[in-house]
């Protein structure tokens, strides 16, 4: 209420509604000039919107995107000021330990989406449609996309591929009012036909196909397209041909933005099996896995040699009088060993003070 | 097959079956002298068993336990040689960002259990029964425990509390053939009656209750008991009174073992809100949250100023001939901007070599 009053004082009545609405942005896919925008938040919503992404793209400022799968990673992305947070089906590999992105289900994705939505207030939230949840028909695609937004709390969805049925599905989802991010090049859900995680666009036919597919997705209404594992010139061509931004991964420096998987960029995974598949295009900005390993070994050492917990980490006290009463009570109940253990503990603690 | 042959060569026939079976341990709660132990693994199973925990306890060697909620953390615990891996309902707070452990459901717990079970081959796996999944009746408790083992792949379960109905439920679960770890002291699922996350056992009555409850759980068949947030003398008394090991958290140095939450011990969470509730009893063995933050800021910087990806991180090539053909093809299709972008890209890449 007071917020509206404040705004009326400072704005001429003709631009009244637009002044309020400029300050109210709940979801990044709600157009700014809505008549009814719901309850007024106490603090202005800081979430990255489609308009802001478009602005960045127009001003040739690179867009940053990172994946997240739970509350802590979402908070980290929030604090680092990353533009877009993708709840990717890469969770199947880095969180669930599968060898491919195929096994993860919509329900599992929704668990990740909700956790991320809870922690990230600033980045735009994009949720992946997992393998098997959108390929049968446009209806299935729209239903899944709706669940990702409704139950998962995301702002937009991403789907892979550019075959005619995928384009039709993307269009149907956009028509349902859900922003769609496309994904071309190496599409990990299609490793069955691709014959593995193999970079695309490395010959003329394939390269032209990448560009054409990206254009078709733009035509269908996508707000951006991910280009994965294609040669840099091909990504450059696609980026120039499109009006919407391209987000690259393993696609060279000529895209409108970049995306990396959280665990890869942080060097989180130390499993020998995973070290084999750490992507070549990913720069490790830290070696968190090493640090975690070292810390756990130190903890194990501390516990094994009895140095943790020390007095500083044993903060809960019982008064000496009560401790004595406790010891006596135990003796009455017949627990002699326990009674003496309690007394000894009190003595030991007093000794260390 | 060859494994069995190898063993026959080296063992006298009378102890044939026991030699094989000594090397075959799938689940830590399968007694060693089973007649039929299922398919022979190629490599001996390394998983920590109940027997090994008992041995450690008998030899007064401290038991280490850490929580894990996904594949990477499970792998880290595996590599660090931690004895027990607990898939705790603390996931509700540290993974899902809730303020309490109450909201998490059995299905969400199972997602975490499966992810952990997939690649933690060495630690014993214990799964928490989440709030609301075992309190109605013993039947409900047994059903949930069965799901945690069957669908979640865990070796044992942990349940909180020591009221009579909880003791009965624990007994029913043990009778169903599932190992149970008890949990007394501050039981986070009971904050409603406790009035918050408040340490227990700080007066005589409460302290005696902790010891008696632990004993009742031992009586019901539990293989160990977690003591959370009680004064050290009380934990010492309980540890002395029990024949089974006690695992302490915020309970001082006199327990048979220690447990900490993964994110707390690694300093993973940087959210101001969480920093408020980082427990006093937890020693931070690393400040992973700081490192993650720094790494993400560096990534954002690199992308924004265009220095990532550099040539080293753009490995996918298209031959010069194909690049030219691609450019021509694009021109034929009318994508002039794209065609020139592709050519420029090739030139720029050649320049940087």
From TrEMBL, chain A:
Transmembrane segments: none annotated. Keywords: Pantothenate biosynthesis, Transferase. It is an enzyme of class 2 (transferase). Belongs to the PanB family. The keyword rRNA processing does not apply. Its EC number is 2.1.2.11. It comes from Arachis hypogaea (Peanut). This is 3-methyl-2-oxobutanoate hydroxymethyltransferase.
TrEMBL record, chain B:
Keywords: Pantothenate biosynthesis, Transferase. The keyword Lipid biosynthesis does not apply. It holds the Pfam family Pantoate_transf. One of its GO terms (biological process) is pantothenate biosynthetic process. Pathway: Cofactor biosynthesis; (R)-pantothenate biosynthesis; (R)-pantoate from 3-methyl-2-oxobutanoate: step 1/2. GO terms for molecular function: 3-methyl-2-oxobutanoate hydroxymethyltransferase activity; magnesium ion binding. It is an enzyme of class 2 (transferase). It catalyses: (6R)-5,10-methylene-5,6,7,8-tetrahydrofolate + 3-methyl-2-oxobutanoate + H2O = 2-dehydropantoate + (6S)-5,6,7,8-tetrahydrofolate. One of its GO terms (cellular component) is mitochondrion. It comes from the Eukaryota. Its EC number is 2.1.2.11. Belongs to the PanB family. Catalyzes the reversible reaction in which hydroxymethyl group from 5,10-methylenetetrahydrofolate is transferred onto alpha-ketoisovalerate to form ketopantoate. NCBIfam families: panB, PRK00311.1. This is 3-methyl-2-oxobutanoate hydroxymethyltransferase. It comes from Arachis hypogaea.
